[in-house]
From TrEMBL:
InterPro entries to which the protein is assigned, alphabetical: Cu-only_SOD, SOD-like_Cu/Zn_dom_sf, SOD_Cu_Zn_dom
Keyword Transport listed: no
Presence of keyword Glycoprotein: no
The entry's keywords: Signal
Any GO molecular function: metal ion binding
Domain of life: Eukaryota
Name used for this protein in its record: 8943_t:CDS:1
Pfam families given in the database record: Sod_Cu
Amino acid sequence: MNMLLSILVLLLSSTLLTSSLPVPDSPNPSTHIAYAQFTGVVTGTINFREDGSQTFTNVIVQLYSGLTNLTGQYAYHIHQYPVPNSGDCNLTGGHLSPSGYPDGAPCDPNIPNLCQEGDLSGKHGKLPGFPSGQILYRQYQDPYLKWVNPTDTIFGRSVVIHYPNGTRYACANIYAGYPE
Ligand SMILES: *[C@@H]1O[C@H](CO)[C@@H](O)[C@H](O)[C@H]1NC(C)=O
Ligand SMILES: *[C@@H]1O[C@H](CO)[C@@H](O)[C@H](O)[C@H]1NC(C)=O
Ligand SMILES: *[C@@H]1O[C@H](CO)[C@@H](O)[C@H](O)[C@H]1NC(C)=O
Ligand SMILES: [Cu+2]
C-alpha cells in the first residue's frame, strides 16, 4: 500500500471510530448548575440546571413559607445585580435582560422570546400564595437563560420575589452549584 492510501485509510477509520463514540453531553455540564436559596421572610430554593445539550435550563422552584397572601400572586425575576450585604432587594437593579427589553415591557408567555430573560413569572406564571405547612413546587424548562457570556449569564445575579402589589419582598443571590 502506498503512503497516501494508508494515510487515507487511517483517517477514514479514525473518522468512523470518532463518529461511533458517544457524544459528550456538553463541554462542561457540571458548571451550569446554580441555585438561589431564600432564608428570610421567604424560605425555599430555586434551582437552575442546564440540560446536557445546552438548549434549555431546567428550573425547579420549591418554597416552604413566606407567600402568605392566599389571594395574591407573586411576581419573581432574575435581577441584574447580587443582593448587597445590607440585604436590600431594592439595590439589585432591574431585570436581567441581555436582549435589551426594558422593565415594564409586556411579556406574553405565548411569545416568550419577546420577554426579558430574567422575567421568570412573565414567561412561566406568577407564584400563588399558599397556606402555612404546604410546599409550593414549580418545575419548567426555559430556553432563554444564558450561562457563559459574562454580560448574559445568570451567575452572580439574584432572584427577587415581589409582593402582589409589586413592591420587592424577598431576594437571594444566584450561586453556582447546589445548595448545601
Ligand atoms: C393580597 O393580595 C391582594 C391581591 O393583590 C390584595 O388586594 C390584598 O390587599 C393583599 N392583602 C394583603 C394583606 O396584603
Ligand atoms: C424599597 O422600595 C420600596 C418602594 O418601591 C419602599 O417601599 C421600601 O421601603 C424600599 N426598601 C428599602 C429597604 O429601602
Ligand atoms: C405592598 O404590599 C405589602 C404587603 O402587603 C405592604 O407591606 C406594602 O406597604 C405595600 N406597598 C405599597 C406601595 O402599597
Ligand atoms: Cu423583580
